[in-house]
From TrEMBL:
Keywords: Cholesterol metabolism, Disulfide bond, Glycoprotein, Lipid metabolism, Lipid transport, Membrane, Signal, Steroid metabolism, Sterol metabolism, Transmembrane, Transmembrane helix, Transport. Belongs to the patched family. The lineage of its organism: Eukaryota, Fungi, Dikarya, Ascomycota, Saccharomycotina. The chain crosses the membrane at residues 264-283, 346-373, 589-610, 622-646, 652-673, 704-723, 729-754, 802-821, 1059-1085, 1092-1115, 1121-1144, 1165-1194, 1206-1229. This is SSD domain-containing protein. It comes from Lipomyces starkeyi NRRL Y-11557. Residues 1-20 form the signal peptide. Residues 308-317, 1262-1277 have a biased composition (Acidic residues). GO terms for biological process: cholesterol metabolic process; sphingolipid metabolic process; sterol transport. Residues 586-754 form the SSD domain. It is found in: Endomembrane system.
Length: 1277
């Protein structure tokens, strides 16, 4: 163990002056202590004698040694020390040089400070002996003294040393020589405190600061500055902030705000307010103008024959007088006719040959499902979220191949929430726990911790625990002084090295520290396990041992509770196991959700009457609903089989989400076809079933095609995304939606035909072989929902005032959502991904609460010939000729602005430690056996057995790097250094760097190397994202300045790379999907304006959902990105059918609106709502609302947040836009082109239909109204 008792020099007294007890004389030329007088104990150090006599003139040999140690300024003065003290002084100063040699100013100040203390002829002026002891020899010895130093001198001394780095621990030399002091008083106090057994002072040295006795004068001199203008004392940048260049400022994050509101949000609010004001003023002006006498066309005013305006006139109704109406011209859109004709043909074929169609459909689906033989699920998170072609993926591969996969960490927290966790009994218990963990064997392979642990020295496993301060042996714990032992170790970890030879920072093993480490609330224990390539024997052995560890720590939790403590832990396998447990729970919830939706759909499709139960048995649609849901599942199966055949792996997102998506689309189509068939049945009961089915398919087929094309293309666009999870989802979703649409218009149509034949044959649903003789039902009328939409809902929202309010409110919500989008957080908190009752919840809470260290980060160089001097200068930081913007210097400067760099610790620079290890003044470091240049001395070999490396070198080793090794000599010395232990020379490379450098001795180069540092504690997803972005920025700046290819690597980086571009990716996907929707809908609807309205409505749906995400705490990540893509598809489903019914209104529905005052676009909107509004509401809206509600009972937080919350928002927002906003928007901005089909198949526009309706007899209209009054109530339209 390294000793640092360089503070005190032994002085002895003359025998004749042994009676002096106190320093009585304080004047120039007088000593206070001199020579050695003995030891306190057999193992103690020599202590000085009290001597208050005159300074002496040394002999020539003593003078020469004094000048060699303390410098030429001591060449002529008298002294208060002898040769023995100088021997000890030199020995102990060399021990300090091992740590401070990279900073000449600090080294010079150390020498001056302790040379003055030991040998100054004016010693008594600033030293006062205050206590004596008795040596084993019987002599008086100094036990305590006061050392008076000028505060300015002490401060300058401290400042010159405070920033010197100790690379091996990513820490500071001040942690080792000053107890981590942050100012000069603490530094000198640590140096002066009596710690004889731990390398500190053998007696107590006090440094009084309050008062100076009159007879004393404080020692003062001009201490060297680390940024001294004299290059002999100037320190390297990494050890001296004043010697560093200034880094250019980072690009400030754009945080433009108006008060507390982001500028973007403020601009949206202002813009909407202005638009709203203009809209209200314009609306009022138009109303006023229309109510004026000059608004009404002369022709209409004369026709009405009075000067009063009716409400009809205000609405601008067409005059219901055939004498005054001109026959309008008709317009057709050939694509409408072609589509309806083709779908009518398809429907007729499927209705005429239902068995054949169903058989062929099942055969095709069965063949596609054969791809299940190649079915595989991708669970590896790296391959799920990161593209193999991406930089982070390739960097991880490089790191794993060169340095080995990042180690596996097993970590536990022992917490006392009511007080200090440390006690003698707790320590005894935990030593036993760790001993059991080390000794236990895994259940399958019989593996122990020693078989798989990280063992950098080959002598001991890495266990980061407070037990390692006691070398893992409870016998070293003193039952009375254990607190003192811990205080000593935490203040100077290098004096309590664990068996694996790396100092343990207190913050790594103790947490919740407020009043001192012995009062900490938590112990932190980490077992470090080697990792291997996926499916390797090492990984299997490690997971087997971790299984045993998990089981044992669960029992330890129970033990801890009996002691008033709490244990939380995480093994490397824990997260995956708990996520799988969560998935199993989610599967049950998903299945229940689907079953509920199935039963609802089956009920809602049928006509259940509790007054006529026999009839209800026939009119039930349970079998049809079952077939419809089965078709959805078949489409999913076919899609998975097809793409599995091409090697596209399934993910859990696909398994959980796509059935939901396809069920939403499929159920809606089922309702549309079923309800259209009911309408056809009521209008054309005399036609054969096959022809009625053909009519229904001809009407609804183009609408299904429209939604299916928009959704398929929107999802397919996601296939260009590089993120595998999103890409695979997009491919499977597009395939499933398209296949489902094909099956809906073929297989389901055939099933619908068979069901209608069964119904008209009075056969029982589910048991078609049973036939019940019941009276034929009266002609079916509309159900309650259809009547409500026709008579109440549609007319209400189409009133002028209502339309204006709806438009303003929905646009207002959209503006508000846009303003909230900047508030959306990024990331996916691990605590959300695990079940709420998982033992990992407490672990992650403790990790954020008590672990005050950030994750390690490595800056990796590759394929760079570091054996050349220029390359060495581009990397190093502790030599005066290192490049100003070298890798080490940039990392050090970034560390100083940790608020933006997130770098917390000095970088472990192997190149600096290696080259300083060669310094011949560090006699315990590089040593060859006598007469050899290829065989190293053992660490504790005697000095006479060894020669110091570079001692006779010409040019000599120096801080300017001149003469340091290059080429083959570099690699030769490197091979010795990398095997050198850290004790007694702390610069040895084996423990800290054996896994950090990849040498190639054949090519005489370094293939790869890493410079280790660590992040600041990262407490949130935003911290992780910012830390990764900062590391990227730093690596790019290093590469730019040095020409070295450098990349940053930390275990979490690969998962957070997505967040650098996720906003761009999200925007690109949604905009591309919107563009596809616009093109497809415009073409299939025959109107650019209607296509634009549909596209805008879908965009508003997505924007509103993103606004809710900001309010409801739903972060943007890959999961929510997939859900946003789903929102686009489902949004189309809510809008496309109504838009199609608007452009091609149902003639029978229009005929029923003769008495209404609605005109033009309003009438077509009314017809669209009456035709398909009930299907949209009963089908997709209520079906999904019921299914989503079930998800509220999940125990999985991720399912609650990213599925229940987002899907509930989707259903509510999409339904409100599709059923409220879209109709209003179509009435204002919908396309003017409109074609309809009458009962003879002739296409006319709406104006022609109005023209013809003027000549119909009133009696016919009245008879149709009478028929409507006879309509029966029911759950559907």
């Amino acid at each position: 163990m390294m000793l640092l008792h360089f503070l005190v020099v032994a002085l002895t007294t003359w025998a004749s002056l042994g009676s002096a007890a106190i320093t009585e004389i304080h004047e120039a030329g007088t000593c206070a202590i001199y020579k050695n007088c003995g030891k306190k104990s057999f193992f103690g150090a020599q202590l000085p004698c009290p001597y208050n006599g005159a300074a002496v003139t040394p002999d020539d040999s003593t003078r020469a040694k004094l000048v060699d140690i303390c410098g030429p300024s001591w060449a002529s003065s008298k002294v208060c020390c002898d040769g023995d003290q100088l021997e000890n002084l030199q020995l102990n100063l060399k021990k300090a040089e091992n740590l401070i040699s990279s900073c000449p100013a600090c080294q010079a100040n150390f020498v001056e400070f302790f040379c003055s203390f030991t040998c100054s002829p004016n010693q008594s002026q600033f030293i006062n002996v205050t206590g004596l002891g008795r040596a084993t020899s019987g002599n008086d010895i100094v036990a305590e003294l006061d050392y008076y130093v000028q505060p300015e001198t002490a401060s300058d001394f401290f400042d010159s040393c405070k920033d010197i780095k100790f690379s091996a621990t990513n820490g500071y030399v001040m942690d080792l020589i000053g107890g981590g002091a942050t100012e000069f008083r603490g530094f000198l106090k640590f140096l002066g405190d009596e710690k004889p057994l731990l390398g500190g002072s053998p007696f107590q040295i006090n440094f009084p600061w309050d008062e100076t006795p009159n007879e004393l004068t404080r020692l003062g001199y001009s201490a060297k500055s680390c940024s001294d203008s004299d290059e002999r004392y100037r320190c390297a940048c990494v050890d001296c902030p004043g010697a560093c260049p200034s880094l250019p400022p980072t690009k400030a994050e754009n945080k433009c705000r108006v008060g507390m509101i982001p500028c973007f949000s403020f601009a949206i609010i202002v813009l909407y307010s202005l638009v709203l004001i203009v809209f209200v003023l314009a609306y009022k002006s138009i109303i006023q103008f229309r109510r004026g006498p000059f608004y009404k066309p002369e022709r209409l005013r004369l026709l009405q024959g009075n000067g009063e305006e009716s409400e009809d006139e205000e609405e601008g109704d067409i005059v219901q007088s055939p004498e005054m109406v001109e026959s309008p011209s008709t317009k057709t859109y050939s694509l409408h006719k072609a589509l309806q004709s083709r779908f009518t043909t398809v429907g007729l074929f499927c209705a005429q040959f239902p068995g054949l169609v169903i058989g062929i459909s099942l055969l095709i689906v069965g063949l596609m499902s054969l791809g299940w033989l190649h079915f595989t699920i991708e669970t590896n998170p790296v391959r799920l979220w990161v593209s193999p072609n991406s930089a982070p993926y390739q960097e991880k591969e490089f790191y794993d191949n060169n340095f080995g996969p990042f180690y596996r960490a097993e970590q536990a927290f022992v917490v006392n929430e009511t007080g200090p966790v440390l006690s003698y009994e707790t320590l005894k218990w935990w030593f036993e726990v760790e001993s059991n963990i080390t000794a236990m064997k895994s259940p399958l392979y019989g593996i122990t911790f020693d078989d798989i642990c990280l063992n950098p020295t080959g002598e001991a496993c890495v266990v980061q625990s407070i037990t390692q301060y006691f070398v893992g042996d409870f016998d070293n714990v003193d039952d009375e002084r254990w607190k003192e032992q811990i205080d000593i170790c935490t203040s100077n970890p290098v004096n309590c090295l664990p068996p694996f030879q790396q100092p343990l920072k207190p913050s790594m093993i103790l947490g919740g520290v407020e009043a001192g480490y012995t009062e900490a609330q938590a112990m932190i224990i980490s077992w470090v396990v080697n990792n291997g390539q996926e499916d390797s024997a090492l990984v299997h052995h490690a997971t087997d041992w971790e299984t045993a560890l998990e089981a044992y720590l669960l029992t330890v939790q129970e033990q801890a509770s009996t002691r008033g403590l709490r244990v939380s832990f995480n093994a490397e396998i824990s997260l995956e196991k708990e996520l799988n447990k969560s998935t199993n729970t989610d599967v049950k919830i998903i299945v229940i959700s689907y079953l509920v939706m199935f039963f609802y759909a089956s009920y809602a499709l049928g006509r259940i009457s509790f007054r006529d139960r026999l009839r209800s048995l026939i009119e039930s649609k349970f079998t049809l609903g079952l077939l419809g849901i089965s078709i959805v599942l078949l489409s999913v199966s076919a899609s998975i089989g097809l793409f599995s055949l091409f090697g596209i792996k399934v993910t859990l997102i696909i398994a959980e989400v796509i059935p939901f998506l396809v069920l939403a689309v499929g159920v809606d189509n089922i309702f549309l076809l079923s309800h259209e068939l009911e309408l056809v049945n009521s209008k054309h009961p005399e036609e054969p079933v096959e022809h009625r089915i053909a009519r229904a398919v001809g009407r609804m087929g183009p609408s299904i095609l429209l939604s299916a094309c928009c959704e398929t293309i929107a999802f397919a666009l996601g296939a260009v995304v590089s993120m595998p999870a999103v890409r695979n989802f997009a491919i499977y979703a597009a395939g499933a939606v398209f296949i489902d649409a094909l099956l809906q218009v073929t297989m389901f149509v055939s099933a619908l035909t068979l069901d209608q034949i069964r119904l008209e044959s009075n056969r029982v649903d589910c048991l078609p072989c049973l036939r019940i003789e019941v009276s034929s039902p009266s002609q079916k009328g509309e159900g309650f929902l259809a009547i409500w939409i026709r008579e109440k809902y549609a007319p209400s929202i189409l009133k002028k005032e209502a339309k204006a309010v709806i438009l303003m409110v929905f646009c207002g919500f959209c503006a508000l959502a846009l303003a909230l989008i900047p508030k959306i957080q990024l990331g996916l908190d691990q605590r959300i991904a695990i079940p709420s009752d998982s033992y990992l919840v407490e672990y992650f809470d403790d990790l954020y609460a008590y672990f005050d260290s950030g994750p390690p980060v490595y800056f990796v160089t590759r394929e760079y010939n570091i054996t050349e001097r220029a390359a060495q200068k581009s990397l190093c930081g502790r030599f005066t000729t290192c490049n100003e913007y070298s890798l080490a210097n940039i990392l050090e400067q970034e560390r100083k602005r940790s608020e933006v760099s997130y770098i917390a610790e000095p970088a472990a620079s192997w190149i600096d430690d290696y080259l300083h290890w060669l310094n011949p003044t560090l006699e315990e470091c590089c040593r060859f056996k006598k007469g050899s240049t290829d065989e190293m001395c053992s660490p504790y070999a005697r000095d006479w057995q060894c020669d110091v490396c570079y001692a006779e070198r010409d040019p000599q080793w120096n801080i300017t790097m001149n003469g340091l090794p290059e080429g083959s000599e570099f690699m030769n010395f490197f091979s010795f250094w990398i095997e050198s232990p850290s004790d007694p020379c702390p610069l040895g490379g084996k423990a800290p760097y054996s896994n950090a450098v990849v040498p190639d001795y054949n090519r005489l180069t370094i293939n790869a190397s890493s410079f280790r540092t660590s992040h600041t504690p990262l407490r949130s997803q935003n911290d992780f994202i910012s830390a990764y972005a900062s590391a990227r920025r730093i690596a790019e700046s290093i590469s730019r300045e040095t020409g070295v290819e450098v990349f940053p690597y930390s275990m979490f980086y690969i998962f957070f790379d997505q967040y650098g571009s996720i906003f761009t990716l999200t925007t690109t996907l949604i905009v591309a999907a919107e563009a596809a929707i616009f093109v497809v809908s415009s073409v299939l609807l025959g109107s650019l304006r209607t296509g634009a309205v549909v596209t805008a409505t879908v965009a508003m749906i997505v924007i509103d959902i993103m606004g809710v995400m900001a309010v409801w705490g739903i972060s943007l990540n890959a999961v929510s990105l997939v859900n946003l893509v789903i929102c686009v598809g489902i949004g189309v489903e809510f809008c496309s059918h109504i838009a199609r019914a608007f452009m091609v209104p149902n003639i029978d529905v229009l005929d029923s609106n003769r008495s209404s005052r609605l005109k033009d676009s309003d009438e077509r909107v009314w017809a669209a709502l009456v035709s398909v509004g009930g299907s949209v509401l009963c089908g997709i809206t209520l079906t999904k609302l019921i299914g989503v509600t079930v998800l509220a009972f999940t125990r999985s937080k991720i399912f609650e947040v990213y599925y229940f919350r987002m899907w509930l928002t989707l259903v509510v927002v999409a339904a409100s836009h599709g059923l409220i906003f879209l109709p209003v928007a179509l009435s204002y901005f919908g396309g003017s082109e409109c074609t309809i089909e009458d009962e003879y198949g002739v296409y006319n526009d709406l104006a022609t239909r109005r023209y013809r309706s003027l000549f119909e007899e009133p009696e016919r209209a009245e008879s149709e109204e009478d028929e409507e009054e006879d309509a029966e109530g029911g759950p559907q339209n």
